[in-house]
Amino acid sequence: MVALRASWEHLFGAVGLALFGIGVLQGLFWSAPDRFMGDVMRILYVHVPAAWMTLLCFTAAVVASVGWLWKGLWGWDWLAEASTRTGLFFGTLLLGTGMLWARPTWGVWWDWDPRLTSVAVMMIAFAAVMALRSFVDDPQQRATWAAVASIIAYVDVPIVYFSVRWWRSLHQMQSSPSTVDSDMVLGLRLNSFAYLFFAIWLVVRTWRWLRISRAADAEVPA
């Protein structure tokens, strides 16, 4: 059994939880429904921040992968794996809430338009990175192969972001504070910071767990 000590990241987790509670109240009760979508738009208070965190976590994963290839320090490999795991968590939330939003607005649960297709490819690619980690026994080889695979998988991340600009898509273009109601801006910002603090907590806790468990398995020094 791997034991994790309480540490500074719990402050981030607590702040994230508090902000999320306020963001839920803002999104569900305090903000007005959308003029065209009605109450279904409230899903976006979860969906949009989840999208941002997914891309941010995968970006952190590829930066850590480059760090491993450059320096060869195990902390970089643990950060890459922790960020990938967290990115897949938020990506699952992204896809799930997106489908819940799509059904009443588009009339379908899923459509193979450029944005949705590129997100699906991104999730499959990073899930494959995690699968690769489980199939390789040698720690050094596993870290190197996973780092290279993460860099290759990351090629799809900018495609996800720019897909609605490059191709005709059912998905709307990226919004900005100047194009949405101020009530919605507040809710999105609250939940975005909530997700950010929670992501930091999740990445750091996973990093610590990986460091302890790999040392316990005698794969790497503690």
Give helix % range.
Answer: over 70%
Instruction: Report the principal-axis shape.
Output: globular
Question: What's the end-to-end separation, in Å?
Answer: 16 Å
Q: Tell me the series of helices and strands, N- to C-terminal.
A: HHHHHHH
Number of contiguous helices: 7
What is the mean predicted local confidence, pLDDT?
A: 84
Explain how this protein is built.
With 222 residues, this protein is mainly alpha-helical. The chain has seven helices and no strands.
Task: Describe the structure concisely.
With 222 residues, this protein is mainly α. The protein is 75% helix and 0% strand. The longest helix has 35 residues, at 182-216.
What topology does this entry show?
Elements: H1 9-30, H2 44-71, H3 74-106, H4 114-135, H5 139-153, H6 156-166, H7 182-216
Features:
222 residues, mainly alpha
